[in-house]
Write a structure and sequence with these properties.
Blueprint (H helix, E strand, L loop, with lengths): L1 H9 L2 H16 L7 H11 L3 H14 L3 H30 L24 H5 L4 H7 L2 H16 L4 H40 L2 H6 L1 H26 L4 H18 L6 H14 L5 H16 L3 H4 L2 H10 L9 H11 L4 H11 L6 H35 L8 H30 L4 H6 L9 E3 L17 H7 L1 E7 L7 E2 L5 E2 L1 H13 L2 E7 L4 H6 L5 E7 L9 E2 L4 E10 L9 H5 L4 E5 L3 H10 L3 E5 L3 H6 L6 E5 H10 L3 E4 L7 E8 L4 H16 L2 H9 L14 H10 L1
Parallel strand pairs: 1-5, 2-5, 2-6, 9-10, 9-11
Antiparallel strand pairs: 3-4, 6-13, 7-13, 8-11, 8-12, 8-13
Length: about 725
């Protein structure tokens, strides 16, 4: 027992807390979700010393150097950083090649039509108001201010008074950090248990290809590339390096936050050098100065999120090609000086990837942070150690151990790449295709329904042209006109059931009227005739409310506001990116099913653009080579791209046009129109329209949420059977 106690006492408590947290989450599942606020509290506790620590360490570290030392150190540190970037980016691009073949397609997202946020480098990096930068947590601006102030103190002969004062404060902050770290295993346990217990199967399945990709890349960078480079070029052994990084690595992994472990990294470097009798005043100063700088500049941890950009391009059917690599690399290095959440939308826009892909990143950010943060920690350790020994002129590659590590990391790269490719090929083959998701969507609350493929002869006499609520309830039947294959508003799913946004609303309307519902097909040009002759009571199928039809039928209040877009082959999307570029093309042939009033104005203004009207959308997909693109709503276009993944959707910049859609009713049936408008107001107020929009248009909830697995639940089910 004593030996067991001594063994546990000598082990790292953060590691035990991590293991215990994972085990607790797997055993109890969502029952331990209550621990999350405790973990968040410990994160905030760790943040208490961070900003003061950055300010003090940078000013003191730089202020104590003389001008010659600063020039030498910063030049050598910049050289080390540049070399790490080159080696790391080479590995990242190698892993980008491991993505398997994939049929693209995704649901619409409003983010598609939102303009990309421009990166304001001046705001990020120029501390116009240092106190505001501190209050807002703008780390790059804070670092630049501290570097400027510290550099200004270098030549000041009276600097010792200020530096001694700040050094005392820094020592106090270090003591505070150590006290917090002593109890931080509690926070690590709470965060790990809540994450492991609440992480849904849906989250894991959603982007599992990306998760495998970034995990294999992260493991290679963390366990192979960076530590082996340090072991190869410096006197530090691989095993010792892993040991000194362990605390900061575990904390960053558990919290997904690098910022809070910066003091831990600095003290860990200085402590290791003291233990190995390699410490001196210069090394301590280098660590204090370079740790915050390394955090501010793009790290290899941040750059691993480039994998998401590659994944998004692959997912949407526009994979990054080898000629794109230099352009993407330069854009990435410039944009990653800013926040990752600014850089990724910028890169998505640069690569012409639909902006709504960024939402996928947000959904996986909790998981990907478990790789990005610890990779950043190891990058900072490696960068600082290499810089310290470079300044001492102790970097060399002449030892047998150096050659061994360089050869080993070179051999392991193809091995990790093969693992990533094999796993992702398997996962891609067993992942639900995009068209299956939309083809399997169903209407939750249905009433008895009859779906016809023609207009019954009994309706063609014109006797049913006058309709009101009383008549509908008396006959116990609501007759709805629908457009065939008008995804996602009205279409047949895999079970040959008529479903869609408008179809679900038709079932709800019939349920509120306590009648059955009958669906009768029509084509867009037949709308006025069929309605006014009484072939059906209401037309509901994503119908555009336009000024031409206003004189022939009555429209309800608008149900949705849709965005006009173009659908074309993926390789043609670039041609239609900007409105000005489209208008300058020699001859453009576009197909459409509706939007005639809008398109007539376009033809008058731009004679080079010609429009051809089709009876239905399937006509376009039957012979797409006849046209340059199809005019369609972005909402419908994305749905069709799931069935035809070789097609993509683009909203031309500078030519964004929105239009309302609603229900159509015969001119004489004003009583029915009044009822429908009031009914729509009620549905909007109680959230039913929004619920249908999120399901049918955005695809939220299109896949069934699986119950979170846990050992306790498994045991309970087995004992009750």
């Amino acid at each position: 027992m004593n030996s067991l106690f001594l063994f546990l006492k000598n082990r790292n408590w953060m590691l035990w807390a991590l293991i215990a947290g994972v085990a607790t989450g797997l055993i109890f599942g969502e029952r331990v979700a209550f621990l999350q606020p405790i973990g968040n509290g410990f994160v905030k506790l760790m943040q208490i010393t961070i900003f003061p620590y950055i300010v003090v360490s940078l000013i003191v570290g730089l202020g104590k150097f003389n001008p010659e030392q600063v020039k030498s150190i910063l030049f050598k540190a910049a050289t080390v950083m540049l070399c790490l970037w080159i080696v790391g980016l080479t590995a990242i691009w190698c892993f980008a090649l491991t993505l398997p073949q994939h049929d693209a397609g995704t649901f619409f997202s409003p983010a598609l039509i939102s303009p990309a946020s421009p990166i304001n480098f001046a705001e990020q990096y120029i501390p116009a108001n240092p106190f505001a930068s501190l209050a807002e947590g703008n780390v790059p601006a804070i670092v630049i201010f501290c570097i400027a102030l510290g550099s200004a103190l270098i030549a000041n002969k009276r600097k010792s008074t200020v530096l001694d004062f700040l050094e005392v404060i820094g020592q106090g902050l270090t003591v505070m950090s150590k006290k917090i770290i002593a109890i931080f295993p509690i926070g690590i346990f709470a965060m790990t248990a809540s994450t492991a217990g609440t992480l849904s199967v849906e989250q894991l399945n959603n982007l599992q290809v990306y998760w495998v990709l970034v995990l294999c890349l992260g493991l290679y960078l963390m366990l192979v590339l960076m530590p082996m480079l340090v072991a190869a070029f410096t006197p530090i052994k691989y095993r010792d390096l892993i040991g000194v990084m362990r605390n900061a690595w575990i904390t960053a992994f558990s919290t997904g936050n690098v910022f809070i472990v910066l003091p831990v990294i600095t003290e860990g470097i200085k402590e290791h050098l003291r233990q190995t009798q390699q410490a001196d005043e210069q090394a301590d100063h280098i660590a204090e100065v370079l740790v915050p700088i390394a955090y501010t500049f793009p790290s290899l941890g941040k750059l691993t999120t480039l994998m998401f950009v590659m994944f998004a391009a692959w997912l949407t059917g526009n994979p990054v090609t080898i000629p794109d690599i230099p352009h993407v690399t330069l854009s990435a290095m410039l944009s990653y000086f800013a926040n990752v959440h600014i850089a990724i939308p910028f890169l998505l826009d640069t690569l012409k990837i639909p902006a709504d892909s960024y939402q996928l990143y947000l959904s996986m950010s909790v998981l990907s942070a478990k790789v990005v943060s610890p990779t950043t920690v190891i990058y900072i350790f490696s960068f600082v150690f290499l810089s310290i020994f470079y300044c001492r002129k102790q970097l060399h590659l002449k030892r047998l151990r150096s050659i061994y590590y360089v050869v080993l990391l070179s051999i392991l790269l193809p091995g990790f790449m093969l693992t990533s490719y094999s796993l992702n090929t398997y996962l891609a083959g067993h992942t639900q295709a995009a068209n299956e998701a939309i083809a399997n969507m169903v209407i939750a609350d249905k009433v008895p329904a009859h779906v016809l493929n023609h207009v019954p002869k009994a309706y063609q006499s014109g006797k049913l042209s006058l309709t009101n609520i009383e008549v509908i309830q008396k006959r116990n039947l609501l007759r709805i006109g629908y457009l065939v294959d008008n995804v996602p508003f009205s279409y047949f799913n895999q079970k040959n059931e008529l479903v869609g946004f408008d179809i679900s609303l038709a079932h709800r309307l019939a349920d509120d009227l306590h009648v059955e519902v009958e669906f009768i097909p029509f084509k867009k040009h037949q709308l006025n005739e069929y309605l006014n002759k009484g072939y059906f009571d209401i037309a509901m199928s994503g119908l555009e409310i336009n000024v031409v039809d206003l004189t022939k039928v009555r429209f309800s209040n608008h149900v949705l506001q849709l965005q006009l877009a173009l659908l074309t082959k993926d390789h043609e999307l670039q041609r239609f990116k900007h409105k000005d570029e489209i208008t300058q093309l020699d001859d453009v042939h576009l197909a459409h099913v509706e939007y005639e009033p809008i398109l007539n104005k376009v033809t008058q203004q731009y004679p080079n653009i010609h429009f051809s009207r089709l009876n239905n959308l399937q006509q376009y997909f039957a012979a797409p080579e006849r046209f340059d693109a199809l005019v369609i709503s972005a909402e419908a276009g994305f749905a069709w791209s799931m069935f035809y993944p070789e097609f993509g959707v683009v909203v031309p910049e500078g030519g964004a046009t929105q239009y309302p859609v609603g229900f159509a009713i015969a001119k004489r049936n004003l009583d029915l129109l009044s009822y429908i408008n009031a009914w729509l107001d009620i549905q909007k107020a109680n959230g039913q329209i929004d619920k249908a929009y999120r399901y049918w248009i955005l695809g939220q909830g299109s896949t069934k949420k699986q119950t979170r697995w846990s050992l306790v639940d498994t045991y309970t089910r087995q004992t009750t059977q």
